Amino acid sequence: MIRKLPIVLVFLSLLFLAACTSNETNSEVSLPEGVPDFVQESDFEKINWDKKAVTFNGNIIGNENKSGVIGADAPSLINGQKWMWHLWGIENTRQTELTVVGYHKETGIVHQILTTGWTIGLGGENNGADAHAPSSVKIPKSGEWAILLYTDGKLFDTLIYEINE
To answer: Burial level of 53, CB count in 10 A (0-12/13-18/19+)?
Structure first.
């Protein structure tokens, strides 16, 4: 029995390593065709999934005093939805472009969620924000989403939403 103990320990160690390896998620992000060049795989590694969007200013859901959306709590899966983006800390709003990139946590897939493309122009002040933009969005799958916002090619903010319908 004592001679079999090392074999059993080796077997259990290998079994443990295999179990640990199978629970790891694929950390590689594959960027889809047509995504703007300034969107980097490293941007997705920095996502803080614990920093969930909150409701503020009555009906804006996002990161207070940075960015938020009116409409993010409405059903957006089947037929899409209108979302109104709000950003704080933006200067020259009429010359600034907003790029929106969706990242589904469970699948690790990057999606275009704006129905008209990756990027829209921003308008002026609205609801206390320095800039705003209306858009139509379609979320392809329920689950936890990171919505990465870029202004003029630079990562501006990340919104974490749970989209269930």
So the answer is: buried
Q: Which distant-in-sequence residues (6+ apart) come within 8 Å of 19 by Cβ?
A: none
pTM for this prediction: 0.82
Residue 76 CB contacts under 8 Å (≥ 6 apart), including other chains? 83, 137, 138, 139, 163, 165
Provide the pLDDT for residue 16: 41
Q: What is the DSSP letter of 129?
A: B
Burial of 76 (0-12, 13-18, 19+ CB in 10 A): buried
List of the chain residues with pLDDT < 50: 5-26
Nearest to 94 by CA among 133, 65, 37: 133
> Can you say whether the dihedral through the CA atoms of 47, 53, 56, 57 is positive or negative?
positive
Nearest-Å Rg of the Cα atoms of the chain is 21
Distance CA 77, CA 145 (A): 12
